[in-house]
Amino acid sequence: MVRPLEERFRTVRDLLPDYRVETTQGRIVVNETGSWQHNTILSQLLFQIAGPVAGRGWEIWPNITVYLGQYADRYVPDLAVVPRSPRMWEEYAVHGDSTLLVVDVVTVGSTYDDYFVKPCGYAPGGVPLYLVIDPFQHRVRLYSEPGGGGYAKQTDVAEGEPLALPEPWGMSIDTANLLSAV
Questions:
Q1: Pick the CATH number of 34-179 from 3.90.1570.10, 3.20.140.10, 3.30.230.10, 2.40.440.10
Q2: pTM of the full structure
Q3: What is the pLDDT of residues 74-126, one digit of tens each?
Q4: Distance between CA atoms of 121 and 144, rounded to whole angstroms?
Q5: CA distance 101 to 156
Q6: Do 182 and 41 contact (CB within 8 A), yes or no?
Q7: Would you call 172 helix, strand, or coil by DSSP?
Q8: Which residue among 14, 25, 144, 158 has the highest number of C-beta atoms inside a 10 angstrom radius?
Q9: Residue 1 above 60 pLDDT?
Q10: How far apart are CA 103 and CA 1, in angstroms?
Q11: Residues with Cβ < 8 Å from 75, sequence gap 6 or more?
C-alpha cells in the first residue's frame, strides 16, 4: 500500500530535522541549509526589513512550512514574515493567507520551482507577497495580488534598482545591498 504524500512528508521531515523538507508537485524535496552566499543575501534582507517588522509587531520566521490547502504542496521558504499570532495549521506550518511576505533565494537546483511552481501554489493559498531573489540573474522578482489562477502582478528589478513593497509594507528594498556582497 502506498502511503499518502502527507504521511511520507511528515516521516521524511521527522527523519531529517536539520534539512528543509517540502513537497512540490507530488515530489518530496530535501534541501540542505544555505551556503554563505545564500545566508549573506538573507542577512542583507533582514537588515532592511527588521525595523519595519519590529515596529509593526510582526515576526520573521525561517524554516517554517507554509500550509496552502489540504491537497496542496507544502513549501518551506527561506523566510516568512507573519503577523503576531498567525493562524497555524500545525506547530510547524503557518497558513499561507496568514503570511505577510514569503522569500526564497534561488539556488542552482531551485530555479524552476522558485519561478514557476511555487507562485502557482502560493497564490491560491493566499500568500500576499512572494519575493524571489536571484543571485545568478542579478535580479529580484516580487509576485503580488494573489488569486486562484496565480499572481496578477509580477515586478522584476535588476540589481541596484529599488523594489517597492506594497502596503502594508510601504517601503522599498535596496537590491544593490542584497546582491553586492556575493
A1: 3.90.1570.10
A2: 0.86
A3: 899 999 999 999 999 988 899 999 999 999 999 888 898 899 999 999 999 99
A4: 13
A5: 16
A6: yes
A7: strand
A8: 144
A9: no
A10: 37
A11: 22, 23, 24, 65, 66, 68, 102, 118, 121, 122
